[in-house]
Design goal:
236 residues; 8 helices; four-stranded antiparallel beta sheet; alpha/beta; Arc Repressor Mutant, subunit A; binds calcium ion; Rossmann fold
């Protein structure tokens, strides 16, 4: 599954080069040339990862990274810092700010793509093609198939993305707003009850194997995927 990457870089030539390479690697790229624009973009839709230049006009990359980390909604977005400075102290400062990785310019496009992949695998597994197996279900992003043992389950594209996110973030309660941010990439224009509609469809699809019980409603809070839920023994 392609990742939505927010690229914050003020030098047009570098921005262009990086964007082209990320697109070639199959990612969706949204670009900003300064922290203020990036902030506006994040307010509307959460990216899966931020590629952030250190030296920007106005607020610096470090300052923007701090802002992201200080806000509950944006706290866990993976960040990779880009910098022309290669000093050890800078690296330490970058990582202390909460960056997940740190790349010194000049870097090869291949290295950049590989680092992004590693960070996404660790921090945003729902954007990778790795199959997920949990609670008797197997979800394969590459073939877009969900199976329970031998049984193939039929899921719509939104239900598939929803289940992928839930299975890669199990045992945790996700509010409707969080799910809109993470699965729809939009918490501004999509109504929260849309989540309920797709949860209902997802449960319906999982009923075929009795796995609908793994998708739990947490009253007043949201939804949770729990591999510990009781699945009827006949279909286990
Ligand atoms: Ca710069």
């Amino acid at each position: 599954m392609p990742a939505n990457i927010l690229l914050v870089e003020d030098e047009p030539a570098i921005q262009e080069l990086i964007a082209a390479n990320l697109a070639r690697a199959g990612h969706h790229v949204v670009r900003a040339s300064d922290a203020e624009t990036a902030q506006r973009i994040v307010r509307e839709a959460l990216p899966d990862l931020v590629l952030l230049d250190w030296m920007l006009p106005g607020a610096s990359g470090i300052e923007f990274a701090r802002r992201l980390r200080a806000d509950e909604r944006t706290r866990s977005i993976p960040i990779i810092m880009l910098t022309a400075r290669g000093e050890e102290q800078d690296k330490v400062t970058g990582l202390e700010t909460g960056a997940d990785d740190y790349i010194t310019k000049p870097f090869s496009p291949r290295e950049l793509v590989a680092r992004i992949k590693a960070v996404l695998r660790r921090r945003a597994p729902q954007t990778t093609e790795d199959p997920v197996e949990l609670g008797g279900l197997r979800l394969d992003p590459e073939t877009h198939r969900v199976t329970a043992g031998e049984l193939a389950l039929a899921l719509g594209p939104t239900e598939f993305r929803l289940l992928h996110f839930l299975m890669t973030h199990p045992e945790r309660v996700h509010s409707r707003a969080q799910l809109l941010d993470q699965v729809w990439g939009d918490h501004v224009f999509v109504e929260e009850r849309t989540v309920d509609v797709h949860i209902r469809r997802l449960r319906c699809a999982l009923e075929a194997s009795g796995h609908d019980a793994l998708v739990q409603t947490v009253r007043g809070s949201g939804y949770r995927f729990s591999a510990q839920a009781e699945v009827p023994p006949a279909v286990r």
